[in-house]
Amino acid sequence: MVQQRKAQRKESLAPKQSPLPVRANKKQFTVPHPLSEPWQTHAVPLPFQNVFSISFRIYNNLPEVRKKKEEQKKRMILQSNRLRAEVFKKQLLDQLLQRNAV
């Protein structure tokens, strides 16, 4: 009985080993998400301006937003081309009417 108690004491005093081996010389860190921003790892809150600019940049890089902006640019170019064509028609018509009047 005495020997069993001594054995139990030795087992309870011995350091318990975790199921996963831990390297003593390296700290274990979680791997950050590849799309995460550096500001997400800070413990100190950032000013509103910085957070706003970062979220605005992320939003502008979304594929839907890029496509929408490209379509809007195309519409603006088409509209300006139509206006130029109308102005050209008016100028050409004015020139023809002036020649016929003389």
Automatic annotation (TrEMBL):
Subcellular location: Cytoplasm, Cytoskeleton, Microtubule organizing center, Centrosome
A GO CC annotation given for this chain: cytosol
Gene Ontology molecular function: any one: microtubule binding
GO biological process, one term: regulation of centriole replication
Domain called ALMS motif: residue spans: 1-100
Keyword annotations from UniProtKB, A to Z: Cytoplasm, Cytoskeleton
Region entry Disordered, spans: 1-26
Annotated transmembrane regions: none
Name of the protein in its database record: ALMS motif domain-containing protein
Annotated source species: Muntiacus reevesi (Reeves' muntjac)
